[in-house]
Specification:
Largest sheet of chain A: 5 strands, mixed
CATH class of the largest domain in chain B: Alpha Beta
Low-confidence stretches of chain A: none
Number of helices of chain B: 6
Strand content of chain B: 35-45%
Order of helices and strands of chain B: EHEEEEHEEEEHEEEEHEEEEHH
Mean pLDDT of chain B: 96
CATH topology of the largest domain in chain B: 2,3-Dihydroxybiphenyl 1,2-Dioxygenase, domain 1
CATH superfamily of the largest domain in chain B: 2,3-Dihydroxybiphenyl 1,2-Dioxygenase, domain 1
CATH architecture of chain A: Roll
Order of helices and strands of chain A: EEHEEHEEE
CATH topology of chain A: Ubiquitin-like (UB roll)
Structural class of chain B: alpha/beta
Strand order of the largest sheet of chain B: 14-15-16-13-9-12-11-10-17
Shape of chain B: globular
Largest interface: A-B, 16 and 22 residues
Number of domains of chain B: 2
Mean pLDDT of chain A: 95
Number of strands of chain B: 17
Number of helices of chain A: 2
Shape of chain A: globular
Radius of gyration of chain A: 12 Å
Strand content of chain A: 25-35%
Strand order of the largest sheet of chain A: 2-1-7-3-5
Helix content of chain B: 10-25%
Distance between the termini of chain B: 33 Å
Number of domains of chain A: 1
Largest sheet of chain B: 9 strands, mixed
CATH superfamily of chain A: Beta-grasp domain
Oligomer: heterodimer
Structural class of chain A: alpha+beta
Distance between the termini of chain A: 34 Å
């Protein structure tokens, strides 16, 4: 099973996750405080931007993650899984 | 001549297969029909053909909610009354538009949701005889709520939607949450049956739904529901806990598409002459989650 490195901004930390885990789960386990919403891809609270690398976005609501946003690199971390080493950023509140 | 009950909700589910599996096997509703893009479900103790329709869709959320009226003539009566009240989008949905349903009157409320009134729907029964029945039928799975109970809808004009239901349909207000100055409604709990809410309305994103609530019979059932959520990796939002508002016992959780569900029990009896209980925002924590005394951020910010 593949292991992937996730570099997180603005925390400036690198965490590690396994293939098949969502970015939100990996972040939570490593103390990266991305906000947790419905965990069903329906609310958009856990939105992140993928700056580098590949992710599988999974199924989510178009109303909270538009095709345009996907093109810009956004993803819902509760559904997205890394498919390579990646660099992400999220809004800290 | 009146609305009898909340009869139906139609929920949109992007995560289709998992959502259908969840509503049937984890929540424990019974499938009564399906077509290419919909699955029709009922709670076990309901006698009508369906109370929940799942819709395969791009986005989560509520397609519409519907109330069952006592007589077929009520459709004409309320259609006229809605138009006289100044409701703009009043339409008819023809019989057979959805499986097992007769004609419906459809309108939009000030908070943006589509609401339907209907009388005719195929009756399939609750699996028990009408003479000397046992208390429940065999073969129930999951949390197995006996019935759909209520829903909480969001939007800007809480007062407008609340007044419409009270003025046109004779709903009563069991409870309300108001600003410190008491001038503006943050939320209202409205009833037409004898429970503290058949419909609740909260200030929030226009046209959205906060949750759909299903009845369970007691606190032990709520605990068992929590076990089932943990066992099936269901995302729990809050609870098990108690509401100050309605005094209900509750768990909030999400379906696999991100629509919030609730299992609910308790509360108290309401009558048309019951006074309205008022909560102020100063005590919102106890009002919403009585034990915790505070509301988690997700509960007030996540809608679908």
């Amino acid at each position: 099973m593949s292991q992937y490195q996730i570099h997180v901004q603005p925390d400036n930390r690198t965490i590690e996750g396994k293939e098949g885990q969502t970015i939100l789960d990996i972040a939570s386990r490593n103390g990266v405080k991305i906000k947790v919403g419905c965990k069903g891809g329906g609310c958009g609270i856990c939105k992140i931007k993928v700056l580098e690398g590949e992710v599988e976005r999974g199924i989510s609501s178009r109303s909270v993650l538009s095709l345009e946003e996907i093109e810009q690199g956004y993803a819902l971390s509760c559904k997205a899984e890394p498919k390579s080493d990646i660099v992400i950023t999220y809004e800290k509140k | 001549m009146a609305i009898m009950r909340l009869g139906r909700v139609q929920l949109r589910c992007p995560n289709w297969e998992k959502s259908v599996h969840y509503y049937k096997n984890v929540l424990g509703l019974i499938e009564t029909a399906r077509d290419e893009n919909h699955v029709y479900l009922k709670a076990w103790d309901e006698r009508d053909h369906h109370s929940v329709i799942l819709e395969k869709a791009d986005s989560a959320g509520l397609d519409h909610l519907a109330f069952k009226v006592e007589n077929a003539e009520d459709l004409d009566y309320y259609e006229k009354k809605l138009i006289e009240y100044g409701v703009q989008e009043v339409d008819r949905i023809p019989a057979g538009y959805r499986i097992a349903e007769g004609e419906a009157v459809r309108f939009r409320v000030p908070t943006g949701q589509l609401v339907e009134l209907y009388h005719e729907i195929e009756v399939v029964g609750n699996g028990l005889p009408l003479v000397n029945p046992d208390p429940w039928p065999d073969g129930l799975v999951g949390m197995a709520p006996p019935r759909l109970d209520h829903l909480l809808i969001a939007g800007d004009d809480v007062e407008g939607t609340s007044n419409l239901f009270m003025d046109v349909f004779g709903f009563n207000m069991a409870e309300r949450l108001v600003t410190e100055e008491g001038e503006e409604y943050i939320a209202t709990w409205l009833f037409k049956t004898n429970t503290p809410h058949d419909l609740a309305v909260i200030k929030g994103p226009q046209g959205k739904v906060h949750h759909v609530g299903f009845w369970l019979d007691d606190w032990n059932e709520i605990r068992k529901a929590a076990d089932l959520m943990a066992k099936n990796d269901v995302m729990i939002d809050a609870g098990p806990t108690r509401h100050g508002i309605t005094r209900g016992l509750t768990i909030y959780f999400f379906d696999p598409s991100g629509n919030r569900n609730e299992v609910y029990t308790g509360g108290y009896m309401c009558y048309p002459d019951s006074p309205t209980v008022t909560w102020t925002t100063a005590d919102i924590g106890r009002g919403i989650f009585y034990f915790e005394g505070e509301v988690n951020e997700r509960f007030t910010t996540v809608f679908s």
